Amino acid sequence: MPPPTGHRDGDAVQASKRERGRVAQREYRKRHASRFQNLQEENQRLKNAIQKISQVASSTERRGQDLEDAISEAVSIAGIQVNDQSPAEETSSSQDSELVSLVDPPPIREILSEQRTSTNQSETESESLSQGSQSSLTLDRQIWLDTDRLVRIYDAPSDVLPFLGDGLFTIAGCLYWACTYYAITLWKKMKNIEEPELSDQSRFDRMFNHSKHLVDRDFLMSIAQARLDFRKKGYIDRIHLEEYHAENEAMGEVHTLLQQEYADKNETLQWWRKPQEVETYIKQHLTADELVELQQILQAAVVQPPVPVGPVGQPDIAYTPNYDSYVARVKRRQETETLDRTLPTGFPEKLVSDLVWDGRDLAKSYDWDYYLTEDDLKELDEGLRSFKALDVPLGQISQETFVLPKLHDTLRAISREIHQGHGFKVVRGVPVDKYTREENIIIYAGLASHIAPVRGRQDHLWQGKPADVVISHIKDISREVDASRIGAPAYTAEKQVFHTDAGDVIALFALGEAAEGGQSYLSSSWHVYNELAATRPDLVRTLAEPWASDEFGRAGKRYTLRPLVHHQPATAKAPERLIIQYARRQFTGYWGLPRSSDIPPITEAQAEALDTLHFLAEKYAASLNFHKGDIQFVNNLSIFHARGGFKDSSEKQRHLVRLWLRDPELAWETPEVLQPRDTEQ
């Protein structure tokens, strides 16, 4: 049988998929025309909203003036008052340059220590916010985080991620983070410190030319105090690791000068000291209706992933399962339908095997970790050097070209565990940082070839040209690629629900791990089947019937009819087996790849079956502590896998490398209905 193959949704998106995403986006905008106008109209409404706040602020005294100035700064950063440029040109410039000029800046080390706080600082901090400031924020924090049309600034450093999670990141915070970085660069220019120009120096120059706040000592002092306040409240718990030349002189001298200036005037800074003060002030000067109106206006500028559009009659079901909707559907069907309480002919009432396990207590009876020993690592290093000495293409990595004399037997035992035991194993301890990216891939493919030597094709194209692509990089690309081009959750930071892939064995190598989250989950599909067979045999029948699996235009196909569960009776050569193969997004759509509108909708029974598979898999899942340098091998024919949502940082990014593998010696028989999937992809 040809090697198992599949398709990778990622950088190389076929033209038909892109068009489908564009159609979905157009339909989405039509349904929400009252809130999502064209970009020029949105910008105009946003200008009006900011102007309204400015007018309110201008009617007050000192604090109002500060707010007015700050909002003016937001207007400048948003590009609303750029000279000699029409709104249409602003839109084009902003979009075209986003991935080029708006790159992450060098990290800035926290240099304002608590010891630099003046005696007046404690008095300032002790002053409570104005009445009502302690109430919860009303405006959605995503409004203030919009980086496309409101305040286009650099991302906040990783040490404030907990602060963002608290939902207090307002316009004040946006301006603060921007100016913390810009202030240092400004000071460098003022002091004429000789240092190579930054790659984005032209952007800094434009900023300085129209931003009075960047040369306003009042504002610089206030943001310095904000930094200290955030740090003392625990929102910033560590300094940046990399030093930025001249920063100590820059912020330190600014802090000292401004502190003295305010001491001479017997004044203390009270505005901009805490981000929530901005919202508190707005709430004091707008009516409840005006606040709602402002929220609606600003929300129209928040970037949202496109909502999948399905065929007529499609049940109310999304890629991310909703438990309340699931429970309601179960109740409704049981009350209104007559459900068949018998299993399909020949299907077992119960599967008995090591492949049947409950992840909640599996660790008590099964050790799924294999830690590479020093001898193993030496052998892998020798295998790497020997392969490189051959000077052959990477596609020729095999047991013969990547020889592991002693480790081979251990890896073959792991393959038997994957095919005949519990179905998965984690090989831990590859020293990723010791090697180059290419060397890590060679070691990964070489080691994997001793577990399952056949690598399956995951894509037909490489850099737009026909190719047999057998490796896939799994990481969050949602910040670099438009949402309409992302058709699979693997390439976002969102939660990935339980599913299966296209290969016999799924291998994942962690080149990097996330700063937060991204847990890997496995669940025995055989255990899930046993519970369904005992409690909901009607859903087993539903899973065994043909489903219209969306092909999203791949290879000219609209959809393929196939069941999700496949029963294989015992033979003289193989025991009884059951295979569940499905990917939820093929029935619900996802982001830029909605379920096609010209194919049959799924039924209510199928919608319930999808949710039941997920929630049972989630209930009985095992959580793997998957770290950098680990390789996970999973029997894709008997195990569901999922991933938790995650957050990357400038220091840590989740980056997995995927292989689809097959071991001809131990491989399970591929159901006939799945063979076209293997050969056509």
Question: What this model shows, in words?
Answer:
The protein is α+β, with helices and mostly antiparallel strands and 681 residues long. The chain has two domains: 106-299, no CATH class; 312-680, 4-Layer Sandwich (Double-stranded beta-helix), CATH 3.60.130. 41% of the residues lie in helices and 12% in strands. The chain has 22 helices and 21 strands. The longest helix has 21 residues, at 171-191. The two termini are 14 Å apart.
SSE diagram, text form:
Elements: H1 15-31, H2 39-58, H3 62-77, H4 87-101, H5 119-126, H6 141-145, H7 161-165, H8 171-191, H9 201-210, H10 217-232, H11 247-264, H12 276-285, H13 288-299, H14 323-336, E1 369-371, H15 374-390, H16 407-420, E2 424-428, H17 437-449, E3 454-455, E4 459-462, E5 465-469, E6 472-474, E7 496-499, E8 505-512, E9 516-517, E10 520-524, H18 525-535, H19 537-544, E11 547-550, E12 559-562, E13 565-568, E14 577-580, H20 585-588, E15 589-590, E16 593-594, H21 604-619, E17 622-624, E18 631-635, E19 639-643, E20 646-647, E21 655-662, H22 675-680
Parallel strand pairs: 1-2
Antiparallel strand pairs: 2-18, 3-21, 4-5, 6-21, 7-19, 8-18, 8-21, 9-20, 10-17, 10-19, 11-12, 13-14, 15-16
Helix pairs in contact: 2-3, 8-10, 10-11, 14-21, 15-17, 18-19, 19-21
Biased composition (Basic and acidic residues): 1-27
Protein name: TauD/TfdA-like domain-containing protein
Organism: Cylindrodendrum hubeiense
